Hints:
The protein is mainly alpha-helical. It has one domain. It contains four helices and no strands. The protein has helices spanning about 5-20, 35-90, 95-175, 180-199. The radius of gyration is 40 Å and the shape is rod-shaped.
Amino acid sequence: MNSKIEQLIEEIEDYIDSCKFKPLSSTIIMVNKEEIEELLRELKMKTPDEIKRYQKIISNKEAILNDARQKADALINEATIHTNELVNEHEIMQQAYAKANEIVTLATRQAQSILDAATMQANDFKAQALQYMDDSLGSLEEIVTNAMNDASAHYENLLNSMNSYKELIQSNRAQLYPVDALEEVAEAENAASDAGQTT
Length: 199
């Protein structure tokens, strides 16, 4: 079963896959800014809930260890009670000591085994939770990076297009008045200006 973050990441991936490519490009796509921002905003809202869920899994480590300690204490108590019963039986005193030591040793081994297994399981839960969060955040980082790269490429293409239009406009203006014609126009403007001053 996928988590809410995984579902949102899949929705973002599906949305990106559904976007149309920019004309004359096989790598740059056109995205709806409001739709991608809404998906990212929803992903941002869901992330804390997922982190809390995995923190709860990690916190269960303490409950597992407590349960293991309780079972170990129960085994040791049972062994102690059994030992006392054996010791109280005077006719089998020596056997009681031997049996008691055997039971205590076995109980201690079993308790340690339970504690070791619980610790390994808790550490495994923690490692899985951390790995999952790292993978999810890595996917989110990749999506944001791609979006930033696409935006940068669009901006650069826009500037290049505007520079081309500017150069074309300047060239067209230059063709309207050749150099000689420009000088004549300037002389006529100066003459008109002088005539205006003398009158």
